[in-house]
Each structure stands twice: as C-alpha cells, then as structure tokens.
Amino acid sequence: MLELDTVTAGYDPRTPVFRGASLTIAPGEAVGLLGPSGCGKSTLARVAALLHRPDAGRVAVDGREVRGWRHRAPRDLRTAIGVVFQQPRMSADPRLRLRDLIAEPLRATGRRAEADERVAELARTAGLTSDLLGRRPHEVSDGQLQRACLARALVLRPRWLVCDEMTAMLDASTTAALVAVVEAYRHEHGAGLLAVGHDRVLLERWCDRTEEWTDCVRTA
Ligand code: ADP
Ligand code: ADP
C-alpha cells in the first residue's frame, strides 16, 4: 500500500496548504486525484512521492512508515516510487543528454552497469529514437522531453508511480502515448499509480477510481 493518513503539509508550519489528507492506494491500483488549480495537489503529490516532508500525519510505503527524514526521506523508500512532474524542463538537468537523464537514477544508486541496456529498452517503450537520446533538453520538444522524464521515472522499476499533471502541457496524441506507456508498465509490474490532475475526462478514463480533493482533504 501507499498510504497517506491525516497528513498536514505546506511551506510554513503556521499556515499549511492542507490538513488531514488521507489517501490509500493498493498495489496495482490506479487512483486519480482531481481538484482545482492551487488547492495543493502538487504538494500532496510531492508528499506521496516522499519529496516533501509533511508537518504532521503518517506516510507509509509497503507497510513501512516513512521515518528518519533529515533533508530527504530514506533512499530505499524513495526509490520505490517513480515521479513525473508537469513541466519536464524544471525536472531535467539541461546539461544531460536524454540517455544520461534516463540513466541518472541508476548512476545515483550505483547500478551503472545496467544503464545501457535499460536505457535502450525504455527508449523503445517510451518512443524515443537513438537520435533523440543523444540530444540535450533544449534540443527536443516538451513531449519528447516528457517521454524521457517518464523513462527516468521507470528506470529503477518502482512499485509506485506518482504522475503530477504529467500531460498538462502536451497535445492529445502525446498524452495518449504517455498514458499507454504508464499503463503498459503498470500491467507488467503490478505497480500502483497516483495520477494528480484537473482533467476529469482523462483521469476517469485512465484510473480505476478517482478521488475528489474535497473528499480526501480537510482544507487548512
Ligand atoms: P496545485 O497543484 O493544486 O495547483 P500546489 O500544491 O502547487 O497546488 O500549491 C498549493 C499552494 O501552495 C498554493 O497556494 C501555492 O502558491 C503554494 N506553494 C506551492 N509551492 C510552494 C513553494 N515552493 N513555496 C511556497 N508556497 C508554495
Ligand atoms: P540522493 O539520495 O543522492 O540525495 P537524489 O534524491 O538526488 O539522491 O536522487 C536519487 C535519484 O533519483 C537520482 O538519480 C535522481 O536523478 C533520481 N530522480 C530525480 N528525479 C526523479 C524523478 N522525477 N523520477 C525518478 N527519478 C528521479
């Protein structure tokens, strides 16, 4: 399970963005979280991805409560979760060629030897040609860069995926292609998904169930 239990989070403990957020995702399940812009969905996505420490409440991954945050959550828990954000240019190092961007988590976890094979495999899955793999972020489109960011999120074979407005900047055909990549991965690996967004039609079609922000969060 990926569990958030009565979580409070924000950027200033005196004025949290939300209080009392609870959400549970079962292995293999795809859950969409819908809410208006600015309500706190990205903050919640970052908490669920263990990238943002909550001010109160409990977060647990596969039965293990996340403890021992110093500036980051423990790495073995973080690497169980792949994350894709809305704006690929904000999460991609502009100096790295796409092949190195995809391989980055393998390098950081000391698994460099697997990199070439894994990158080739994911590039095929994500629809990136070898010409594109040799380019840097400023030499590709948003859609091509987001394909690489999705491949990076899958490279460590996470049991959980958090997609925060992954397709908000993309056209319909790239959106459909990226959703298909996520779904193929989930079916192969039994991975659970939290897809956060504001596009009800997309999330209802994509996910097993959708939650309304107002139902899973007591606003601060
Ligand atoms: P959503 O994803 O639903 O649009 P966000 O989680 O991005 O909402 O933002 C929720 C609130 O937190 C907003 O008021 C936003 O201005 C604020 N916020 C987001 N990121 C930061 C940050 N890094 N520092 C301070 N406030 C932030
Ligand atoms: P460290 O444990 O050294 O602090 P980091 O938190 O910087 O490690 O990152 C761990 C690995 O996760 C890095 O290789 C980083 O590239 C990778 N990573 C960063 N962003 C994402 C993402 N959106 N999806 C998947 N992996 C990511």
Structure at a glance:
This protein is α/β, with parallel strands linked by helices.
Tag the structure with descriptive keywords.
Rossmann fold, 23% strand, 220 residues, binds adenosine-5'-diphosphate, globular, alpha/beta
Global geometry: globular
Through-space gap between termini: 26 Å
Name the ligand types. adenosine-5'-diphosphate
CATH architecture of the domain at 1-80 and 160-167 and 191-220: 3-Layer(aba) Sandwich
SS-based class? alpha/beta
Low-confidence stretches: none
Order of helices and strands: EEEHEEHEHHHHHEHEHEHE
Can you offer a commentary on this structure?
The chain is of the alpha/beta class. The protein has a domain at 1-80 and 160-167 and 191-220: Rossmann fold, CATH 3.40.50. 39% of the residues lie in helices and 23% in strands. α4 (98-108) packs parallel to α7, α5 (115-126) packs across α7 (142-154) and α7 packs parallel to α8. It is globular, with a radius of gyration of 17 Å. The structure holds adenosine-5'-diphosphate (ADP) (2 copies). The site of one adenosine-5'-diphosphate has 10 residues, from β6, α4 and α7.
